Amino acid sequence: MSRTLYDKLVDAHKVCDLPDGDMLVYVDFHIMNEYTSPQAFSGLEQKGLKVWRPEAHLSVVDHVKATRQRAPHNAASKLLIDNLEANCRKHGIAFYGLGDPRQGIEHVVVPEQGLVAPGMLIACGDSHTTTYGAFGALGFGIGTSEVEHVLATQTLRYKRLKTMLVNVEGALAPGVTAKDIIMKVIQVVGAGGANGYAVEFAGDAIFAQSMAGRMTICNMAVELGGRAALIAADDKAYRASGQMTFDAETWASDEGAEYDSVFNIDAAGIAPLVSWGTSPDQSVAIDGMVPDVSAETTPKAKAALARALDYMGLEPGQAITDIQIDSAFIGSCTNSRIEDLRAAAEVVKGRRVAERVNAIIVPGSVFTKLQAEAEGLDIIFKEAGFDWRPESGCSMCLAMNDDIALEGERLASSTNRNFEGRQGRGARTHLMSPAMVAAAAISGHLVDVRDFKKGTA
Ligand SMILES: CC(C)[C@H](C(=O)O)[C@@H](O)C(=O)O
Ligand code: SF4
């Protein structure tokens, strides 16, 4: 029988069926950060358990990491980092900590270090573990008690998901990026529209993407509610994973495989998108307008829209390009890879950040930072007035370190979540591609990067 890529991955990792209908799956690789692992190690300690396969785990410091300097910015973050290091030393687990040339945001570091390959099952106490789907690997986020379970047994209790296929056919217009594809998909399917599903992306617009672009798509697919995102492994994926040969299994869906749900999206119809609201599906094309509450039909939808507009401080009908920004942030596991920095630098080169705008760039990893510096990108950014951070981490993607946006501060951001308070209490996030953030930083307001490049914005 024809099987989907998702079913092949699950079948290949199934250890046994459990009496209640769930199954036990084997975890090839498990990643930890300082934020979601402490209780798991305490749990092991209390039960007197050992880590069963220390070499199949990796720890990376990222969420609470300061990025202006190497040293932790406060005692609480220092404690989290020190704890993780001590736990890793004790159990013989690899640790990429402060000053390690391999340190960075976990989902940037793992592919960079060649630790993901097609056909793997990867777990991590972080929802954006879906990123590895770009390699035809099954990656998903787990909770703290599950982290403990993986440490002790290298397995997890797992429930098979339903399958969704999202086909993006055709060619993107110039200036439209992977970030716009995934924001479009989220707009069409809805935030939470893939709850209970594993989402497979296919179509020529997907396979035309670089590995960085595919990672952006699978990373942000978790905002659909899907607990897995997948792209079939092609030559590009094998090469990027450092695997030169194909293994016995083809990590792609079989011809004729059936899905529980299918969406078709025309790539040519996608414009650069920006979010206007407080959910990643509240987005609109850059040449559009802030939506009108009266266009909603149900009282519930009207109230939700009104609340989002109120939080965002926007007026219905306002042109998106009239929205002035206070800050610009390029970073996060969605968009801080070298390809993202190059795209932003191309926009910024020879220009100056608008007077009132505070513009920050945090490379996704130390390795990415060094590569960017070797290419002279840091000079381009610094000369334009960007704050080029010397250290890597999650930074302003979420308000969990010393980069916290102020009440009412409006940001153009290359990140993935725009919930109330995500980047700081009362902070207003507009999600978009890194090139769009760069263009907004220079212009001082949201702008179509294509018009900006042509000089017609
Ligand atoms: C802190 C962590 C658990 C969280 C996640 O799971 O995604 C964070 O990385 C995020 O992006 O919100
Ligand atoms: S960069 Fe943002 S989305 Fe990614 S792991 Fe860190 S906090 Fe989560």
Question: Could you walk me through the main structural features you see in this protein, from its secondary elements to its overall organization?
Answer:
Helix 6 (178-189) runs parallel beside helix 8. The strands form 5 sheets. Strands 5-4-3-6-7 form a 5-stranded parallel sheet, covered by helices on one side. Helix 11 links the parallel strand 15 and strand 16 (358-361). With 457 residues, it is α/β, with parallel strands linked by helices. The longest helix is centred in the first third of the chain and has 17 residues, at 75-91. The protein has 3 domains: 7-158, 2-Layer Sandwich (Aconitase, domain 3); 162-269, Aconitase, domain 3 (2-Layer Sandwich); 277-449, Aconitase, domain 3 (2-Layer Sandwich). The mean pLDDT is 97. The chain has helices at 5-13, 38-47, 75-91, 106-112, 144-153, 178-189, 204-207, 211-220, 235-240, 299-312, 338-348, 366-374, 377-384, 434-443, 449-454; strands at residues 14-17, 23-26, 29-33, 57-60, 94-96, 121-124, 138-141, 155-158, 162-169, 197-202, 228-231, 261-266, 273-275, 283-285, 327-330, 358-361, 387-388, 410-413, 428-431. It has 15 helices and 19 strands. The structure holds 3-isopropylmalic acid and iron/sulfur cluster (SF4). The site of 3-isopropylmalic acid has 8 residues, from loops. Its cofactor is [4Fe-4S] cluster. Keywords: 4Fe-4S, Amino-acid biosynthesis, Branched-chain amino acid biosynthesis, Iron, Iron-sulfur, Leucine biosynthesis, Lyase, Metal-binding.
